[in-house]
Amino acid sequence: MDHAVKQPLLEVNKLSAFFRAGRGEVQVTRDVSFTMAPGEMVGLVGESGCGKTVTGLALMGLLPPASSRLEGKILLQGQDLIAMPPSAKRRLRGRRISMIFQEPMSALDPVFTIGHQISETLRAHQDVSRAEARNRAIEALARVGIPEPTLRYDAYPHQLSGGMRQRAMIAIALVCEPQLLIADEPTTALDVTVQAQIVDVLGELCTRMGMAMLFITHDLGLVSQTCSRLVTMYAGEVVEEGRVDDILLRPRHPYSSGLLRSLPALTQRKARLPAIPGRVPVRGDMPPGCRFQPRCAHAQPPCTAPQPLRAVQPQGEVRCCRAEELILPGVLPVERAA
Amino acid sequence: MNRRQLLLIGSRLLQVVPVVILATVAIFGLLQLVPGDPAAVIAGEYATAERIADIRRMLGLDRPVWEQYVVWLGHAVQGDLSASLITGQPVLDEVLRRLPNTLLITVLALVLAVLIGVPLGILAATRVDRPTDRIVTTIASLGVAVPNFWLGMILVGFFALGLGWFPTTGAASLTQDPLRALSHAALPALALATGGIAEITRQLRSALIEVLSSQYVRTLHAKGLSNARILWQHGLKNVSLTLLTVVGLVFNRALGATVAIEAVFAIPGTGSLVVASATNKDFPVVQGVVFVLVLIVIGLNLMIDLLYSLLDPRVNRR
User: Fold this and answer.
1) Is the ipTM of this complex over 0.90?
2) Which residues does the UniProt record annotate as the domain ABC transporter (chain A) (predicted)?
């Protein structure tokens, strides 16, 4: 059993997603690889359209089978989810892996009560009586900090505020106590004050239940609050992976550095926000070699060669041939970081 | 039935009053536009001008239109739809005598439309862009386009005259001889139903496709529910409002279409009554029939409104 303890909870290995487009296919993500230990909280960041959500949906097996195709491996405790038959994958969803979404307004069925939507999840996976499912659903509502959970059990989604709906969504996702939660921008659609509460609830529940969380977001501030590790994606590829503290201080990839420096709260007041120049390349028209190189201030001729994701010292991985020579600014000024 | 729903029923009932008044004004006004004078028709071909004037006075046709209308409405709310100009029989009796024949084919058409349209719609929506879906949507488009009276004649020619499975014309009382009544009603109901089948199929298909590709259905998949459960529980409850709306429309349309269908099948219903009365300028009968049909349509819409509030929790919000 010794090796079972060391085995990662999730191992994503060279995962590529393709979408059917007309006669052909478009590659949406390429060779996405990362691992997650049991109970670990990992941030997955990048701009809109970089493939974060597609990666999350791929882990859940929720990409439409008729119009998409996956390559690579997704190992959940050694079991390959891509090779698994659909019915077996369905039994994993909501039980061992759960997902919450960006829009709590439209992610809940409007014509069923919150309570029904929680207890039906429980009853889909476990052999429990109606009464017991009800009790556990009320417990789940209480756990996510919904006041008067017994009353709220019979509430419809439209009777709750956005923050409460997202809490209800979390209650649904966590009622079967999964090992892995994929949170796809769970706070983007919410008020700023509510955002912090939701992130707190998620972090606290993960710790208490020993659950791992993949936190998909473009908000590095939220990641630094909750996660211990960070995966940065750009144009469908993982460009950097490492400990949050390391990357905040000294990012290895120019894109990570650009993302960090465009955080408003962390730059000086009244100074212009540094933005990353240029725009994300279009699928099907990817630059050769490093996909960030056309926008990169540090690009040099070797950058047009294919860039592998490679390990850097002391920890982490980066997809940049100049990682060692560049000293890139993080959220702190370079002089102090170095 | 909670207090809120009672309030809803009350306010909806109040809204019915202006609708009924508008509808009756419209009927009255339209009949005034019809060329020809009922008095002249009754008086016969070689009547003198005085004779016609006498008849006009007797029938109250010499009075201002608004006065005629108020008198008529006053009687109508008391259940007196006045009498036929031709036969002198009370209009209400005649309408009530014929209404069962019309309602039988209309309700039967609605049942057929739901029983055939709903499964077809679900079948197509769960197989979007696959051959089954293509075939169903093509047939549904044809069903919308085919005129029901023409289809009625084809059905008579094939099933009644050719195969002899059904009677060609007429009607029977459902209470006295249910089997014969149903066999008489089968072909006209089928002819009436085709448009409804097509409409229900198309609307249900598009509503269900929308629901099944919604974000909350993605959540249901993320929870690990089976496809069957997602379709039959969440999918159907979410499209039930659309279905209800379409069923109401289909019923109203079928009721209107009985005018043509009853002519094709020689059914003594309200549709053929209205046609015959209009030709004879028997205006009180036309008014009476339309008044009763309007009441039926409004009553059905009221019922549908109330069902909405039972099916969708958001309707009661206020």
Assistant:
1) no
2) 10-260
